[in-house]
Amino acid sequence: MSDSEDNDNEFQDEEIENGHISSSLSPTQYVNASSTDEDEEELAGDFNIDLPTSHKYLGKLNDLGGYTLFEDGEVLTLLGIFTNTWVLPGFTLPLILENPHESSVMQHFLQKRKVFVLLCENALNSQEYFDYGVTMEAVETSIKDGILSLKARGRQRCQVVPKSEIKHLTERLQKVTVKILPEYKVTSPLNDTQLYNLKQKRPYLCEDYGDMKNIRKYRKYHAAQYTYPSWLYEEYEVCYYVKHILEGLKKCFEMEFVPKDPLTLSYWFVQNYLLQYTERLELFKQRTVIARLRLEMQYLRNNRLIICHNCTQLIGEQQHVIVLSKDGIQNNYVNPGGNVYETITLSEAKNFMLIGRPSKQFSWFPGYAWTIMQCKHCKLHLGWMFTSSTLSPGVFYGLARSCVLVANAPNTPNCTSPEL
């Protein structure tokens, strides 16, 4: 990648890879791993948000096929990888393993089973892994000059078995024993204590909140045997939370690709909404979908700010998040050196400076050139500005979650939800 003319001495003999400096990737490897500006296909019009999810910058990959799910409660010993990023079930993780030993270990495990585990950092102790992870299934791979490139999809939540041995194979790869976590089916609070004849004559179950309004008078019959008012039981129906979360998200997101299914929505929220790291961990360990949705509805009450990880200078605001991928505003991308970045896309950003010249090499958003962003105050790397003269939007910003923090905006409510 191009170096800034003002920083030639500082970055001498080193390669800048999507904003980070590394001498581990040789110029030959870099050319093989990415496309040149001249080879980039000219695109025009509105940007196709299907393109980032395909991760075309990885080159041609071989489809492995299949869809692997394990039984609830099953205990497995799998390869685990730590990438300092998040992937929820249903979302994609791109990887480049350019270290020969790391690549060899991963290939060895993938030959036996296409599934591995994504581990994340414990918020209370950065030297330890969080107790929960996600099984990832490799769906596409390629090997070129000893470099392994792959795409994996999140499948199921799992938990590291307490006191089990974690065998470190490389810096990022471990052999771990995990237990597959079930997704418990949540039923209506009125479901198990009703007389059969009453159930037959007075409908009370509903999957959509709009349907609940139509049968509200019948639900009152079922709730009459209890001391609590009938409206209270509505707040323990899954559809109640889906309705209010979708209403809250409308104020901040384009809703075309926001799922309506309760389980999928609960994962989409964790993957896409601007959450603090500890909030994500808290949501991820919830046992049921309704527990996640209840907590997510609380988090919707606060407007969020994006600040520099080092000096806490304001960089972006929640109202400026923009969807440039079918999977949402926060997605994982990998640079040629194998560093994975969860990237937040914004239409506006502030308090940054640009480093180097625009380049389309290994661009995560086809048709756009990227330029490195640094904090104007402390010079910390923040992410990348993406520009195009033919695509709309012409400019947007991709902030690396590992370089910024999410904070609550003081006294500025935006996406709100009803009080519980």
TrEMBL record:
Pathway(s) per entry: Protein modification; protein ubiquitination
Record key words, sorted: Metal-binding, Nucleus, Ubl conjugation, Ubl conjugation pathway, Zinc
Gene3D superfamilies the record matches: 1.20.58.1480, LON domain-like, Peptide methionine sulfoxide reductase
Skewed-composition ranges (Polar residues): 20-35
Subcellular location: Nucleus
Name listed for the protein in its UniProt record: Protein cereblon
Species: Cryptolaemus montrouzieri
Annotated GO CC locations: nucleus
UniProt domain CULT: residue ranges: 303-408
Cytoplasm among keywords: no
Phosphoprotein is among the record's keywords: no
UniProt-annotated stretches for the region Disordered: 1-42
Family membership noted in the UniProt record: Belongs to the CRBN family.
Summary of subunit composition and partner proteins: Likely a component of a DCX (DDB1-CUL4-X-box) protein ligase complex. May interact with pic/DDB1.
InterPro entries xref list: CULT, Lon_prtase_N, Lon_prtase_N_sf, PUA-like_sf, Yippee/Mis18/Cereblon
Described function: Substrate recognition component of a DCX (DDB1-CUL4-X-box) E3 protein ligase complex that mediates the ubiquitination and subsequent proteasomal degradation of target proteins. Has an essential role in mediating growth by negatively regulating insulin signaling. It also has a role in maintaining presynaptic function in the neuromuscular junction synapses of third-instar larvae.
